[in-house]
Amino acid sequence: MRYCVRMPGDRLILGVNIAGGVAYMALVKEPDIELLDSPTKIAPSDSHVDAVRLKDFGDRFVQQARELGVNVVAIANTRKYKEWAYAHAFERISLEVTLMLMLKQAGIECRSVSQESAAKLIEISKPKDAHKDLANGRNGTSSASRAGGAS
Q1: Is 106 a domain residue?
Q2: Which CATH number fits the domain that encloses residue 21?
Q3: Which of 16, 23, 50, 54 has the fewest CB atoms found within 10 Å of its own CB?
Q4: DSSP assignment of the chain
C-alpha cells in the first residue's frame, strides 16, 4: 500500500465498494489521482457475532480512514435491487449503515455515491466489475496511460 504526503489543502477521498461482505477501498486525491498501489480491504471478523461484529468492523474501518487522513468516505451504492437473498442484502446493508454511523460519530464526512460515479473517478471502465478490479489491484488503466504515456 502506498501513502502520499498530504499537502495543506489536499482533499483525500476514500472510495468504498462493499461486495461479498468485504469493503474494498480506493484512496483518491482530488481531482483524480489514485494513491493506493495495492488492494486494500476490510472484512468483518468471524470471531465476533451480531452487534459486536459490526462495531469491530466499524472501529477498524474508522481507524484506517484516520490513518489515511481522509476528508470524505464515498460508499458506492449497490447495483443489485432484485433477486437478492435476504441474508446477502442484510449483510450489505448492515455493513453500509455501520460505516455511515461510525464515520459520523468520528466526524468524518460520508456520502453514498453511484458505482458509475465512483468508477469514473478512478478510471474503472466497467462499474459492475469494480470490485474485481480493486481486488486484483487494477483500475482499468495504467499510471503511464493516465499520465499520457504508453500503457
Answers
A1: yes
A2: 3.30.420.10
A3: 50
A4: ----PPPTT--EEEEEEEETTEEEEEEEETTTEE--SS-EEE---TTS-HHHHHHHHHHHHHHHHHHHT-SEEEEEPPS--SS--HHHHHHHHHHHHHHHHHHHHHT-EEEEE-HHHHHHHTT-S-GGGHHHHHHTT--SS-HHHHTTS--
